[in-house]
């Protein structure tokens, strides 16, 4: 009889201990795959968001948390809109653009959405007190900042789609909205449609192209319309600042802190470092969970194999009396371990991937896809653990003396 037939027969005759060992290995692999998968795609999301995010300095309320910047404007904390005027009058070197925002959760067409209030460029230009302050500088010879080239792309555009790439827009009416691609799909809305929001009716001015950021799920409206309809008063959640990179890394942060001591000033690099630290912690924890669960799995496999050797002493002795070599008996037990490892690795990879796909968007707003590389890691790790846990029981089985086995019987 071939060795694979013996292995299959043995596993069918004693399914309960095999399933217990298999479950322990599978859970360990699942934990590793799920957390590693989420961590990898979270880092990719950070890179994508950084590429599309024009602002590199944030002014936040003092109690706002930075654990997840992508939800930072949904922290529920607010600060006076008057802070924007204070920053404008301060004329701090290096500040190329100010973008106050207020986010409000509401429902539209039976769907939950987040409405983000923004100020268009025309609103700044309409404030006579701000004339001549140099906001939205467009000439390279400006003496406001120290950038080698000023933020000309941020000077505003008549095209509403500029909001996706330039982080600003020239005009936005009091009853007009711009939809992110996912928000438009969710609301089944298109350009020209009328959309009920916050108790008012808004006309869809544009639908932004997909950018792969949080903006895709947002509805953008005029800041003052959002404040009025949501009855929040003249407040904002965050002020995004586009600053010269050298200024953002230098004296600008201290100058902003001195100008607005009531707020929290952070740079995007700080936010990214915080998120990357969380990702690194998640990755390390995945290996900790993996090690603990696989240690439990290895103990379970070793226990099952030792018990199996004890129960099958006579069968093993009979096989050896019929001519089975010690290496054949060793391969018989290690073969079962390989089957457990391969099945556990595949099941753990599949379960961990599904878990990551489900939890990624809910926990970190991260879209997760299967990572084939983790399948290789799962198979190798699970198989090695199973084989190593079965090595001593296999050696013990191969060392049995048929004569002594039959005498004991």
TrEMBL record:
GO terms for molecular function: ATP binding; hydrolase activity; transmembrane transporter activity. Residues 20-235 form the MacB-like periplasmic core domain. The chain crosses the membrane at residues 285-307, 328-359, 371-392. Its EC number is 3.6.3.-. It is an enzyme of class 3 (hydrolase). Pfam families: FtsX (PF02687), MacB_PCD (PF12704). Keywords: ATP-binding, Cell membrane, Hydrolase, Membrane, Nucleotide-binding, Transmembrane, Transmembrane helix. Belongs to the ABC-4 integral membrane protein family. This is Macrolide export ATP-binding/permease protein MacB.
């Amino acid at each position: 009889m071939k060795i694979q037939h013996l292995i299959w027969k043995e596993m069918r005759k004693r399914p309960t201990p095999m399933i217990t060992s298999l479950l322990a290995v599978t859970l360990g692999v699942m934990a590793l795959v799920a957390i590693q998968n989420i961590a990898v795609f979270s880092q990719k999301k950070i890179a994508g968001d950084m590429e599309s995010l024009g602002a590199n300095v944030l002014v936040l309320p003092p109690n706002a948390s930075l654990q997840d910047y992508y939800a930072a404007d949904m922290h529920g904390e607010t600060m006076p809109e008057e802070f924007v005027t204070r920053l404008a009058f301060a004329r701090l070197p290096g500040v190329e653009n100010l973008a106050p925002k207020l986010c409000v959760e509401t429902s539209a067409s039976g769907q939950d959405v987040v409405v983000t209030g923004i100020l268009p460029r025309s609103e700044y230009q309409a404030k006579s007190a701000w004339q001549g302050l140099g906001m939205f500088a467009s000439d390279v010879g400006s003496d406001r900042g120290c950038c080698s080239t000023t933020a000309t792309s941020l000077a505003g555009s008549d095209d509403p789609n500029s909001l996706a790439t330039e982080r600003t827009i020239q005009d936005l009416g009091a009853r007009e909205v711009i939809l992110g691609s996912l928000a438009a799909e969710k609301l089944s809305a298109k350009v020209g449609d009328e959309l009920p929001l916050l108790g008012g009716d808004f006309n869809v001015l544009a639908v932004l192209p997909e950018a792969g950021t949080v903006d895709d799920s947002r509805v953008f409206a005029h800041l003052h319309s959002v404040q009025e309809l949501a009855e929040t008063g003249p407040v904002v959640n965050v002020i995004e600042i586009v600053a010269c990179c050298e200024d953002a890394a230098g004296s600008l942060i201290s100058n902003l802190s001195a100008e607005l001591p009531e707020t929290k000033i952070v740079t995007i690099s700080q936010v990214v470092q915080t998120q990357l630290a969380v990702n690194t912690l998640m990755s390390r924890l995945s290996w900790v969970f993996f090690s603990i669960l696989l240690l439990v799995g290895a103990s379970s496999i070793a226990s099952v194999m030792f018990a199996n050797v004890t129960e099958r002493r006579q069968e093993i002795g009979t096989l050896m009396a019929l001519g089975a070599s010690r290496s054949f008996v060793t391969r018989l037990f290690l073969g079962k371990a390989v089957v457990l490892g391969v099945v556990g690795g595949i099941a753990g990879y599949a379960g961990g991937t599904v878990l990551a796909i489900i939890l990624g968007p809910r926990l970190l707003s991260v879209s997760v896809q299967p990572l084939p590389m983790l399948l290789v890691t799962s198979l190798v790790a699970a198989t090695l653990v199973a084989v190593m846990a079965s090595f001593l029981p296999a050696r013990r089985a191969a060392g049995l003396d048929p004569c002594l086995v039959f005498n004991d019987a």
